[in-house]
Amino acid sequence: MPADTCDSSAGCQHAAVADATPCPDGNLCNGAETCHAGVCTAGAPLSCSDGGECTTNVCDPQLGCMYPPIEGFPGLACLCAADLAPASCGPTAPPAGVVRHFTRACRIAAHASALKSHRRARQLVMQAARDLGQATRGARRAGRRGVLSPDCASALTAILDDARARAARLADLL
Question: Which of 130, 173, 138, 169 is nearest to 156 (CA)?
């Protein structure tokens, strides 16, 4: 790829730039383009995978990799199917009350997903969100009392907050 310059006495000049000089095309998804032997060569495309089961892996040309959550009933079902005990908890199981509220919320959400009545489904999803809020508060309380390590309580709270937020967004759509 030449580096174009213009000089009032010499006129336009076209000098080749050094190999490996960046020559971006503005699309982050198709990799970093660089010059090789005077030609702009494509780089390796981005591989967008966060390893999360409950997110969608997408690449935005301007922003790069993005991982929006799976929304709606499929997103809640995914979170309910995932392990409630994060890796940071080790062998420590979540408190029984947290598990009870989480399980109840998941059961309610699954029932709501099968309903034809949006009004009743919305009521049930709102109840599921309340149960998830109870589970979140229980996880925080367990962390404060030392029943869970701070890292475990934080990770568990993040999972439960995510589920509650998805349920609340779904209720708003119904």
Answer: 138
pTM, 2 dp: 0.75
Can you name the residues that pair with 58 across neighbouring β-strands? Answer: 66
63-73 per-position pLDDT tens digit: 999 999 999 99
Tens digits of per-residue pLDDT, 48-87?
Answer: 888 888 999 999 999 999 999 999 999 999 999 987 878 7
Fill in the amino acid letter for 82.
A
19 lies in the same domain as 87: no
Q: Say whether 44 sits in a helix, a strand or coil.
A: coil
| Same-domain check for residues 97 and 165 | yes
How crowded is residue 6: how many other Cβ atoms within 10 Å of its Cβ? 8
Q: In 10 A of CB 65, how many CB atoms?
A: 15
**Looking at this protein, which amino acid is placed at residue 42?**
A
Tokens of 68: 């929006």
